Queue: 4 jobs
Job 1
Amino acid sequence: MLVAGEAGVGKTALVRHFADSQVGARVLVGACDPLFTPRPLGPLLDVAQSAQGELLDVVLTGRRPHDITTALTRDLRRRPATVILEDLQWADEATLDVLRLLGHRLDDVPALVVVTYRDDELDRSHPLRLLVGELRTETTVRMKLNRLSAQAVNELAKPSGMDGEELYRQTGGNAFFVTEVLAAGDSEIPHSVRDAVLARAARVSPEARSLLDAVAAVPPRAELWLLEALAPNEFGRLDECMASGMLLADGSGVTFRHELARIAITETVSPDRALALNRRALVILSQPPHGAPDLARLAHHAEGARDAGAVLRFAPAAAARASALGAHREAAAHYARALAYAEGLPARKFAELLQQHSHECFLIDRFDPAIASEKRALEIYREAADPIKEGDSLQRLSHLQRCGGRSREADQSIRAAIDILEAQPEGRELCVAYAGMAMVCMNADDIQGTFKYGPMGMALAERLGDTESLVHLLNTLGTMEMLTGALDSGREKLERSLELAFEAGFDEHVGRAYLNLADVMVRLRIYEGFDEMIERGLDYCTGRGLDLWRLYLHDSRAEAHMQQGRFTEAVQTADLVLRNPETYLPKFLALVVVGRVRARRGDPEVWRLLDEARTIAADAIELQLTGLVAAARAEAAWLEGRLEAVAEETDEAYARALRLESRTFLGELAVWRRRAGIQDGVLPIEVPEQWAAELDGDHVRAGQIWTRLGCPYDAALALSGSDDEAPLREALAELQRLGARAAAAVVARRLRDLGARGLPRGPRESTRESRFQLTQREAEVLELVAQGMRDADIAERLFLSEKTVNHHVSAILRKLGVSTRTQAAAQLR
């Protein structure tokens, strides 16, 4: 249950009232922190402390989100509960990953998970907004909490004798604002929440007001031992603060009734007093009476105290802990905080800090700051005349540049790294550089380069006993072997890479193995076991905070759905990536998928998407970018009947595919050029059979191969080149079934040119207007499915045979892009 609403609208009051009403039931509550950088797993630590047992042990020992989710679901299966997680707009990345994983496991978990958040504080790129879009609709209910009505405010105002209409006009019905005004008891209504809070605070004694300052300085919660040490002279006024309603008891500590109240008090604290409170809190929290110090809180107060030494001591330590927990966003923020105070550090320490920041930014798909930090580190190593560190920094930079879409720069950086490191004594840095060079070549479809540097790196890795580089190289070589036709040996290398990475705990290499295996399966149209592999990969990457790899896996799934004719599902999956505006290369493939689906359906805004994709690929040297967008643009032009544009869209990528002898891209591009009437002659290499058959003019055989592969749209397009009426009619029927209106129109024109009569008209207007292309009868069936009726009952209601209803249900599931009746009902809702 997602409970959204603005700050002060009453979300906490609602869920706490609900929790109190669950008499005898188990309720676990956790809340997120309003720190500069939130504590990793903060709300889950609250939940674990209530649950105790295995869950608490797993959280306290700093395990990853995957392990925490497993422990939490195990606990909930033993003892069902309501889990309330509040203020998720402040959640750290690891907490969101647990929630993301939990959302996919709720089918068999006897639990209600209630999440509250401020939807007015979520911009388009906010991590929580992205998470909300990924939660499964069939297990998620959304509630938008609105402000109080004028009538409600009037009811609340009656006992005080205050003018309810004026109170509503001034507060807009914000529940917290209304109650603060009424609690202050003044005749004049304040103009803002801040004024209302301060009016209420003005009614307590000066000592109590000083205690409120101290509580405000140590979010999210002031433990009693901390408060007593922080404000010993004012601690005796705690009862007064609570009696005034400003503070609430929270276990063994106190909090403000609302974060808005804490902020209002904080804003009135003088800079010198705020500095003193932060300095005192820093000392006290560094030696807690029990347990280890909270590094995130210490980093927060070190920055508030403007203590450079403390920031450099605690922020990197907090970053390392956050990274170990999979909270890479928070880790990057802590390293950035440390860098702001790092100018006085020794050069090498500064460079190491820069590289740590760069790596965390890379893991969360923020390449501009990642590249900037690595370049600063490179300058330091050059000034220090350290060629080994310089070469190692260059290979790191190359990796960042490639993933950030700067492939030409990446190629230059990795070659420079190898030139420098080959002149030094043989070491691991050179081995890593060879692995990086092999990867650059693989991504550029450079077969010769991959098979040159890959074995060189393998031999060096074995001599040095460098398991991590061996894992990297097995992945690269296995991928290229599969793409060049050596399926068995290539898959064996990829699976060996995955196995070794699992054993050694190389999270990024596990993610990369899943990513490359998915990419190869999509390019070769291998779908057996694909969905299961993607689910395993998503589960692994989500549980370890590997955002970049998770987005890539969504891309592969979207492209596979598109290839299989599951257009609605393809667009929905691609949209999960496009909601993240910070992403770069993952965004490219998502744009291509949505652009192609729109072109096939005859939907608007095709070229805006494909133009943006071409812009991303403009400076690339990889065919997986230039070749893919060229094929997409050629298809869109062909569907519009602009055959003359196909040559311009494909010339450069086709020439590169010829030069590199890339089987898959060469086959696809050659076919689009042939469909546009371009005669390129005989290809110098053998391309996959589905394209080879069409290039040979055997359209029926090409259609059969595509059908066997599970690609109905491609099968229909292959048949569309035939000169015979029967295969053309078959193609038209299939394209109409898929909702590929633009392609169906092309085939229909071809049939009419051949003199065919009695062509099916395709979906009716009512069907075209349906979001999922449902016929009127299918919409009726779906309504009854959503009511929980069986096929036999639906057949009796609609005077149809049970077999006919079964066919309708199958068509509905296919059009909606779902696999179960429950999911179909959720889509209808």
Job 2
Amino acid sequence: MTTCRPGVEEHIQACLASLTLERKVGLLTGASFWSTRPEPSIGLRSMVFSDGPSGVRGVMWDERVPSLNLPSATALAASWDPDLAYRYGAALAAEARDKGVDVVLGPTINLHRSPLGGRSFEAFSEDPLLTAELASGYVRGLQDHGVAATPKHYVANDFETERFTANVQVDERTLRELYLAPFERAVTEAEAWLVMSAYNSVRGTTMTENELLSTPLCAEWGFDGVVVSDWTAVRSTEPSARARQDLVMPGPHGPWGEALVDAIQDGRVPEGAVDEKVRRLLRLAARVGALDTGALDTGALGTGATGTANPPPPINDGPALAREVCAAGMVLLRNNGVLPWPAGGPASVAVIGEHAALSRTQGGGSATVLPEQVSHPLDGLRAALPHSRVEWSRGVPVHEGILALPLASLTDPDSAEPGLRARYLGTDCQELLRENRRAASLVWLGTLPEGTTTVELRTRYRPAETGTMALSVAAAGQIRLLVDGATVLDTDLAPDGTSLGGALFARPTAVVEVAVFEGAELDITVRYGVPEAIAAGRVAAVTVGTPAPDWPVPDGIAAAVATARDAEVAVVVVGTTSRLESEGFDRADLKLPGAQDELVRAVAAANPHTVVVVNAGAPVTMPWRDDVAAVLLSWFGGQEFGHALADVLLGHTEPGGRLPTTWPATEADVPVLATRPEDGVLRYDEGIHIGYRAWARAGRTPAYPFGHGLGYTTWEVSDLNVAALPGQPVRVTVTVANTGHRAGRQVIQAYLSKEGSAVDRPVRWLAGFASVHAEPGTRHQVGLTLPARGFAHWDNGWHTEPGNYTVHLGTDAEHLPLRTRISIL
């Protein structure tokens, strides 16, 4: 880590010495849900935290303050491009600084241990090296521009089921070589200023109390930053205070405070431990410009590219970057020649599927932001093909739950502005605040007015047609729904589970039918009694809407087939829903929801030029993959998804992605699936064999291997050369030729293996990669560096087994045509 200038550290020490015990302890618990406590006596302002990792929400989860919605982490990872990850981090820094945010809670660098992980879209990859390279770029992109990054969730938090309480049993070697490795690089190379401790336990000790916070994080890696808890993860006073845990979030209440002061005064916790926590907090404040250090140079603290606490903001290319990342991460899994389309586009296009008009641009949970606008596939294709006939067919029902009432149909009765009037009521129904809101789906994370017990939402709704309307409310708590002054629903909705995530992201729904007449306004009022357990944290969530539409599957398929048969090409957009991929729960299986598989088969039979776009954040099974002309994986593509998709289909941009995670043909083929603890324990018994390593060990063939991706041209790799000098990284060079007719990008991947090893090893493991851009007919020499650690294994320290290793080189984990042996002494 960076050695700090004595002047700055002396200033921090002087600040520390001036504080009483009570003030020092007070700094170690947040002031609110999103901010730390100020201390004006030493020139310390509050620091503001914000959820990431694919956008910066700011303090308010509020449609009135929109945020840039970048593509999901899996989309970024599919680019295999650390430089792009740097620019991604820099864009987040610009957004953060615009919103007054000092600390972004990202990147998420847990591994894709199982494809059933509900939050996989938020993490990068199944491979620790690829994850580490991308994480380092992301962290540097943020911090070079004065905004702190927070790699999370430390450590082995690769599942959602029982994530608050589960105990992960994992051996030391597996922990070091896989799950700790990305955090190590984020600390030792990118010099992350924070790390977030996870909810779960590892080997019997919850992470906020775990020795892993000291060793290896600090003692071996030299981490001098702040360990911030995941929100509500600190549940003890003495054990967590004696550990390397530094900051309890959220505030203002928590298990430290007065209880910690008493523990120190009684000698149960040394005051020196608190001093070190405060010192690290003040160091973070100096780095982000929250501590007045006068004329002292804070450059050696790592405060941005300019060496000052307030570096100039990065250029905010926002939507343009979102569009670029989306295309760079799209993976062309299959193509029989139908893509790219001719420059002018097809004369007619059938666009099919609910996801075509209402795609998923991001995953569910705390990673969710509210963008100013979104380009869905149907939007993007219509904009890009003004002279083509573009027709949409809904296909089969997919989305579940509740769809919020559209803003265009709502009027605030107070202001006559679009939206709803929100009133926040305390005990005895006194009004604490009223405001106009411009959405019918609202979340408050630490932002409910203090003392709120009831949220009242009122609007005038204009129905689009005459008939019976199913009016729905989704919330966890007491709900009273009034229509034109009459109570039509009065019920208590229990949350899904006992966790905060269940109350916010898996809310139950109540439905009532009401008669409506086109153009005749309804006066709708919802009174939501916020449960005390979440109101205490000033947290709530409520949606007013209608159930997701449903219709007979045969009718939907017949209409889609008719539309496809009448078009030159068909684009079917399939995907997952927020009830499948979200924080708070894992997936039950890998199937596409509803009858989407049946829909694809029927459309492909009707039109041989069918392209399927898979709008999912993590693997799904695709039993029809060999029956369609092309399969394009878009992940959760961010707010410019539709425009980026049109760019790729028309060949304006190459689909540049390569799989960061293995995609199976069937769920039964997957070697490692378990995400559900048994008796509170989740055993990582597979050891170092996850992802493509597990597939190779089991001798199974996936649908598409790790690293796979086609692009729009063809390639030839040859002339592998390896230079291995004792004690030096191994240098690999290879000649790469673009043998096609278009410019393109290829990702060259190097894997290692060792036959006859005395230790358990993967069949092969990723050791390095590099990308090359090439014009048609050109040849380039590409170099890769294989670090010494790539050959090492953990056995109470890093050791390199001497002997012969094989370097395998190619374009994915299974297609490795070049190989050579090297000797490591």
Job 3
Amino acid sequence: MPFTGGAKDVGVTALSYAEANVKAAFDLAQKLVQAKDVQEVLQLQSEFVKTQFSAIQEQTKELGAVIQKAATPK
């Protein structure tokens, strides 16, 4: 059974977040391959964790709003 209405919005939103997170991980991998030393690797990893933590917090908040909207009867 295909997604309809709000459920489709939830799926599309979740998929877009997953794609963004995978892209961020690949971007980090490219930077790590080009890192000059261990210190740079650690700095890149630290920045990635901070950025992703913030992104996931925002994504969770927004996805919750989309789910709530989808669950609200019209």
Job 4
Amino acid sequence: MTLQIEWLGSPNKESGRRGLRVEAIVVHIMDGTLTGTDAWFANPAAAVSAHYGIGTAGQIHQYVAESDTAWHAGRRSRPTWRLIRPTPNPNFYTIGIEHEGRADTPWSEAMLAAGTQLAAEICNRWSIPVDRDHLIGHREIYALKSCPGSWVKLDDWVRRVRQDVLAPATYNFVSQVGVVVTRSPLNLRQGAPTTLAPVVATAQLGATLSFVGWTSNGLTVNGNAHWYRTEADLYFWAGATRQPVPGVKPVGRG
């Protein structure tokens, strides 16, 4: 399933991340409606924002680019997040996802499905481990709030994100038949283009591998998110082959 994301933008941000990279996702509750959050994040006087907002019907709004810093988790109070840094504030190395509703409001299946798939795609883009150290609730940074509330169970939410990462439907697929040669030993993984998928075979340096297609939104490894797929539904990372970008002829080769 391809996510439909509507860009709204927000003036409440900082361009870039001061040289840091995204390391975690912070889950929030809006304590209100998606419409109200859209308006609040558009107001410079609010001085707050998040990267994304998810509505109860599953709609996704984006306010800040992932490569920029949103103002969603900068304050600290008795933090329990194990990986929090002394400085700078967590905004510079996290992505914030807001969810419509209040602390005790049940989350709709549509909102859960959209939010977990979005988180799965973010984890793949930024090579974020899918675990409770890297997918956290806002209250784990700022204990004066219960955010994201009492209804959602974060352990269960992370399990759903992991399921999405391992689901073939999460990824695009371009049908194309061909062969590539490995330039280092290479694992072949069952079912999904991610290191979370189990290894079922290893190809050695110089091996020729056949493929029936490829995806461009698998787990990003060393800046490359391309993975090939074999006829047996095994995936292998394109970056360890002599054709690291599928469909593009390597420079200097006939």
